[in-house]
Write a structure and sequence with these properties.
53% helix; two-stranded antiparallel ribbon; 2 domains; alpha/beta
Length: 248
């Protein structure tokens, strides 16, 4: 909340002040307390109480912290996409190691009767796309949107042994997904994954893993690593499976 990491409980009056400040930061950092009081139509005493809720002894300290917060915001930027990252990835997709990983996934899918896609965050969108893409090309596939409320624990052994859990994950460390993997492996389900690294926990727990290795990108608390390699890999697997089925 502004320059604080935690939320602050504000009454209606303080919320009016907060809304004005957040909408006019560039003006407020140069204002006197009287100027702000005139703008929001509240007393300077009310503004001082507001400042104390933000761990400031007075308006001057609040304004300094606000100025530093604004400066940090302006310094944050997103680097332009480096096309060489994608060129390098595409080059690696033609290498024997990557092709072998694709084939290992296809071998499992050939023996499966149902594919369940899962992913979290941006990877969830890739998982949704994967389920649609596979269903259109060769095999009935579904996507589980919320593992917490739709756990995969209670499938029968008869269903599990013909199930392929297809995981899309950049960091490969999601705890909820890992918990479901352990449960499904007890029932002989097959696990395949697309991750950024073969060294991640999900990759190591998978029966087959396709790592794509691109630079991880972070913006504040969000993982904004490109999903293009995951998308391309899903389509490669789908097309390879369709090709294999056409040969039979």
């Amino acid at each position: 909340m502004l320059f604080l990491d935690e939320m602050v409980e504000l009454n209606d009056t303080e919320m009016d002040i907060y809304n004005y400040i957040t909408s006019n930061i560039d003006k407020v950092i140069y204002m006197r307390i009287r100027d702000l009081a005139d703008e929001v139509h509240y007393s300077t005493t009310t503004i001082l109480r507001f400042c104390r809720k933000f761990d400031c002894h007075g308006f001057s300290e609040f304004r300094i912290k606000l100025r530093l917060f604004r400066k940090d915001q302006q310094l944050i930027h997103i680097d332009r996409t480096d096309e060489t990252t994608y060129i390098d990835f595409l080059t690696r997709t033609a290498q024997p190691e990557f092709q072998a990983a694709i084939q290992a996934v296809c071998d499992i899918l050939e023996e499966s009767e149902l594919t369940v896609f899962i992913g979290v965050g941006a990877s969830k969108i890739m998982a949704q796309y994967g389920s649609l893409y596979f269903s259109s090309l060769f095999l009935m596939s579904i996507h589980i949107d919320d593992l917490a409320n739709h756990p995969l624990y209670y499938m029968s052994d008869q269903v599990s042994k013909k199930l392929c859990l297809f995981i899309v994950s950049v960091d490969g460390e999601n705890k909820e997904i890992i918990k479901n993997i352990h449960q499904l492996k007890l029932h002989n389900a097959k696990i395949v994954s697309i991750t950024n690294s073969a060294k991640s926990t999900i990759a190591k727990l998978s029966d087959a893993n396709i790592p794509y290795y691109i630079n991880k990108e972070q913006y504040q608390d969000a993982n904004i690593t490109s999903q293009l390699p995951a998308l391309y890999t899903i389509e490669m697997v789908g097309k390879e499976m369709r090709k294999l089925l056409n040969l039979k």
